[in-house]
Structures
1.
Amino acid sequence: MYNFDLVRPTTIADAVAAMGQEGAQALGGGQTLLPTMKQRLASPETVVSLTAIGEMQGVCISDDGKLCIGGATPHAVVAREAGSKYPGLAGLASHIGDPAVRARGTIGGSLANNDPSACYPSAALASGATIITNTREIAADDYFQGMFTTALEEGEIITEVRFPIPEVSNYQKFEQPASRFALVGVFVAKYADGVRVAVTGASEEGVFRWSEAEAALGKDFSASALEGLTVPADGMIGDLHGSKAYRAHLVGVMTKRAVTAAA
Amino acid sequence: MVQVKMTVNGKAASGDVEGRTLLVQFLRENLHLTGTHVGCDTSQCGACVVHVNGNAIKACTMLAAEAEGAEVLTIEGVANDDGSLNTVQQAFQDHHGLQCGFCTPGMVMTATALLKENPNPTEAEIRDYLEGNICRCTGYHNIVKAIMAAAGQDVSRIAAE
């Protein structure tokens, strides 16, 4: 790997200051960024590691009953500690990558990267989560702006993510058999005021909400309510692992499975 | 260069590293602990798995400087105090859980982490936990069998397949 300056701040304030340098890049658990840098697909001059910032670690419940996860919290910690509060989210976290990746990879890193096949974006969008940064709060509906694109500004750091806790929820992932990334992943969350369905892995626009399914499930929360509903193949990802039509079909199948598992 | 200090296999270790120095490089090249292998260098294969503060991680995908102050355990540190193989290592030998041996350090470290989390895993749980550890020789059957045996399960009736 080419060389760079590594900074390891212990407070958000110091991290924000370090991110102000020219060519600085935040490093979460590094499970995507470090392989990307080895391939020279990214070449920051200064890398700001967020893993030593205590105030960005951990899982808790806010005063208004939301699940709060520090931006630098590894997937394994979410899988272990969120289970009693938000089992759908803990279930998702417990199947990201492999155990060693889950011990390092972080929720903030995943959401900041917004890989079109990553798991967490679907949970954040389906939960109507709030992405909290060092400067502001961003609603998930405004945050995701297409493949690898988010509302984050240069130097902005995800310090926390807040999830309203649904009545029931489930995530179903159809894994691409080699990479184990989501070929299609669907997160379904049922709240008192409606159902939200978010799809990852499938679209060229990255994670998206399937509003027709949300409306149908809002009236009747059962897999049969989805009969006859389809997403258009146009705009889906088509590659050697699956055609556009195949992914579009999988969206329906995985949504039904998620509803059945959640109900 | 920055100085990094950590505890490796119970002993204080330190050295000067660059920003880019990976933990696996530090272990192998500075500390000469070459039991931790570099297989793919892309966080797929798991030959470089070590424990950092009790968690199994891929040492090719963690910067050495990020292990500042950490407790690191490598394959060199897992044997019994008298130098004999520990339960997991012995089970790999007894059940022929290796052929070429390249993946074995990572397999043993991952198996050790699994048994700490889940002392009596099912075969399916073992296979699921080994998702990030690739073995190109054995077909995994004897690795799984060794881990079941290390957990104290009776594997005498499981065929090698």
2.
Amino acid sequence: MLTRLIPDPFKRGRVRVWLLPSLLVLAAARPAGAEPCRLCSADPGEPEARAAAPVRVEVEASLDFDRVLLTAGSGGTARIGADGTRTSSGAVAPLTGRAMVGRVVVQGEPNRSIRIDLPKRIELLGWHGGRLTLSAVTTDLSSWPRLDGSGRLTFQFGGEVRVEGDAEGDYRGDVPITVEYP
Amino acid sequence: MKMIKRFAALAVVGGAVLAATPAVAAPVAVTGAKPQAKVTILKPLVLTRVSDLDFGTVLLPATVTGTLNVKVAQDGAMTCGTGLTCAAAAASVGSYNVKGTNRQVVQITAPAVTMTNATQAGSLTVTLDAPGSVTLPNSGNTGVDFQVGGSFNVDSTTTDGVYSGDMNVTVDYQ
């Protein structure tokens, strides 16, 4: 709320205070959860508030299970951890050395907190029809990810695929990742 | 009048400040190629014998000089070393069928075979002649056939008799 002291020409020695209606509207219109005022003083935990560098997100590697070999009709599960570990269970042979964890690079304002969203489940579509589900999607991000001193953060993501005995062929799906400054 | 004017001026400034407040930043998606998850599921390979490799009857000369070779190629053509008499019509190439996932390349391993004489001491080593790989043209019960030929040598120490041995051909996805 901004006030301006305006001398009252009709009442000398006294000062009348006016609350400007436009600024009252400004205060009322600020939506809940809106980004803090960029002209305001900085939060103690954040660098000085100013126009932040735009955030960019690029993929370095897709999550690739390579070839998953069924050893029996009962099916099984193939997993790639966010740390790159490869495991399999059930009637699924060990994953090949070409199976790769996904890797993404985020760039933006140095030392700035960042919020990264990935879905927990993704549908993979087969070239000749059929669907598989990539579930238990995990990342190696900390609870409060933050860009480093050069404005960069690299993280990995993995997941698991349950394969039934009658599945075969190539399957793939997009992994929607969004990033923003909190 | 002056006060009203000044008030109006302040109201305009307030309105300008309101308009300049930046909008809430929207989430940013991946630039360029989107990250993907991908997997290729392969059915188990099934290898089935279709026919045996048979060199038929090979007639040795009274005296074998040096080392003589007998061969059945992948296309079934038979060749006999000089001095040997081979019944090509009775020979046949070996054949296998492999089933698996469509469009996958399958590697074939065909190690040498030791044929042993059924009635006397003696053995012959057969070097198999098989394709290095085949590409599956389908999935399911049809699969694809491939042929396996071979060759062996005889010399003056070779004993007569019926020789046989098991072929240990294996396949794997490349």
3.
Amino acid sequence: MSHGKSQTQKMKEITGVDPYKCMKCGKCSATCPLFNEMDIKPHQFVSYVLNEDIDALVNSKSLWKCLSCFACIERCPRNVKPGKLIDGARQLVVRQRGADYLTPEDIPERLDPELPQQLLVSAFRRYRR
Amino acid sequence: MQRIGVFVCHCGSNISATVDVEKVAQMSLLEPGVVHAEDYQYMCSEAGQARITEAVKEKKLTGIVVCSCSPRMHETTFRNAAERAGINPYMVEIANIREHCSWIHKNIEEGTEKAIILARAAIAKVTLNAPLKPGESRVTKRALVIGGGIAGIQTALDIAEAGYEVDIVEKTPSIGGRMSQLDKTFPTLDCSACILTPKMVEASAHDKINIYTYSEVDQVSGFVGDFTVDIRKKARSINMDKCTGCGVCSEKCPSKKISSEFNRGLGKRSAVYTPFAQAIPNVPVIDRENCIKFKTGKCGICEKVCQAGAVDYTQEDEIITEKYGAIVVATGFDTIKLDDFDEYAYNQSKDVITSLELERVMNAAGPTKGHLERLSDGKAPKNMVFIQCVGSRDVTCRGKVYCSKICCMYTAKHAMLIRDKYPDVNVTVFYIDVRTPGKNFDEFYRRAVEEYGVNYVKGQVGKVAPQANGQLLVQAVDLLDNKQILMEADMVVLATAIEPEAGVRKIATMLTASIDTNNFLTEAHPKLRPVESPTAGVFLSGVCQGPKDIPETVAQAGSAAVKAIGLLAKEKLMTNPCTAKSDELLCNGCSTCANVCPYGAITYEDREVNDHGIREVRRIAVVNNALCQGCGACTVTCPSGAMDLQGFSNRQIIAEVDAICR
Amino acid sequence: MSITAKTEFKPKIVAFCCNWCSYAGADLAGSSRLSYPADVKIIRVPCSCRVNPMFVLRAFEKGADGVILCGCHPGDCHYSTGNYYTRRRMTLLFSMLDYIGVEQGRTRVEWVSAAEGVKFSTTMNEFVEKIHSLGENVRLGDLRCRN
């Protein structure tokens, strides 16, 4: 499976969204309060998934602009719910394993006496293989 | 012992692609009683049928099994072939190896194995088949049309023209239906009332047509050719024979603030009213819920002013019982409720209206006398926004999954009419797709864009927000431009999805006519029998069957009429011979079967029986073959096993079970 | 005496379908090419209420691994009330069968309309899967037939 394909598969699994249900009405983009801030518009999210270009979504500005107000999810007439795709793309970023954001060597310099112990433990749990 | 012939159809490659038809034929020959088996390209073709009749004669067959498509498709074809060959048509059984086998299985081994078993079951059944003879029943030469809109009127006219009596039952005070509420019609822009009113007059003046307005169907019993229907004529409180239609009562009625159904709640009417000026009959009704006389006992003004003495407060609902040979359902449609569509602010602003309401606004007899004005402040609009697919093509619980079909065209019509009459009004239409299949339809839509300058934007509206200044802020998207649009509008018109009229489910239940999840009545075959209900003798006319425009409705109305006429023209009908039958030696007259029979087909009589030499009079169940529809409820409920169903007998079904489980 | 290798479990499943809704639904599943296992064999009956509990017992007696009845949705019966009888009769029968060792999963009543080809196919897929998970059925015996 190519990278794009496996990413798409993952996206569909995480979100449960079937992009084929979309009838391209644009209700999501019409509803979105942050439309003008986004580089990839809500309705385009569906086509990116259809075209298996998840990397573009993951690297988009929109991902972190979306307010998760769920207006698009609420009003989508076809139960496609593009907001879920945005959420899914965020999950893909968060769930990346191996891309270690934290190594044991980093710890001493980042150590902050006020940092709770649990945070360190959970950070390791999340980011280490 | 029966001599059975098995005929396996290839159906081109539809069956033979996944079923080894030759093998099915070979294996069938091993079954007891089978003396002939063959396979052929198209069993239903003339040549195929000829092979059956030849084999019957040559091999002296007494039973036939055809392994082919669904019996719902060609059972009649093969039964007729059997009859031509000289054997009883009910000695034919179909093994459905297409829909239930070849089309759903891809593996040829699997498909062949299943086809052999299905053939085996059919052979086992036909071994026990007995010749059956259909009974006869009479046809009442009178038709009932439920609904007095354009569909019902047209059907009634066509049936009446063929010389049969027709009754129209209409639940509102006047015939005319939705079409009477419309202003102009697409794509010719002729005035709706101008083409409808003559039809209404023609129907009411026709000596073969009898119209019951302000009436509803209360109860239906019987079956094709012989329905008995109770019609409830609701108390009009006006004597129809005496009333001259002068209208003084409505004029003088002090209770004038009732929301007018005809004007979709945009105008007011009095408690005694005719819905519109051209109403037929031109006789008012007293709306008892809002009448002061009925509420408080005081008033009685209408009675005093009526010179004809037609007002009668004592009138009561009247039940009319009539017999009919055919029933046509023409109950029509309504627009869906918009309570769940908060984003369009329909319930918040008077200036957000449905398209049907706009029809009333544009109509010269409507609440604004035909002037296009905002309903909130009466000001002339400058910017109008039309939103398409409001609730249509919506799979959520808010809307309807189907396309309402008429909205694209009437929106183009509205946009065009407004641009024509008020050239300074800007009109923007937000659409998902513009669907214009139909004669001169796309040309019409293009004219709206090219000649009338209507601004069509591909995209939906996300929100309509009423502003403090009285304007409506519309937030939408232009998908082709990839831009979000924010614009102010004076009026917003919603192309609201249509749905079947609310009472249709109740009517369908009374008629035992099938109805789908969207409350549209189901046709007997989606392509080949589009105006017939699967319930014999019930026909479908207009939107009750599916969304359609006026020309299509009129065409379907005529078609439904032809089917009804075809039925009424028959002197007698053949009845289904697969009816229940009780074994007089086993029956103990317990009455259990009569209790479960939905048709009242079972009665009891004291009959002398000869039970192994003992002659005695016993109470025995007797099935009326004309009434029995062959459901088999009685056969299972019978504690003594006396009741059996011909054509689907206990032994036949058990033989099938055995063959499948062998 | 020879020992034969245990062959792959191929369940025998009898489906009773009413002529007006479910049989047409099965036809629609066919014309929509919605596949379900070939283990399901359909018997056409005029109404689900025609299915005598004896037929179900007979099927289990003859080695069926599952029996499913399909009829019109409640309220949509072509004969007005037939499926209500089915519902009551089969509830009773199935609980009795469960008591004597034929698990509830082997018996089912499902409402499938003529427009529900998809539902027919998914129902059959689910049902066959369930039978697979339950494995081979116990064989019922009819004591009356024993000499």
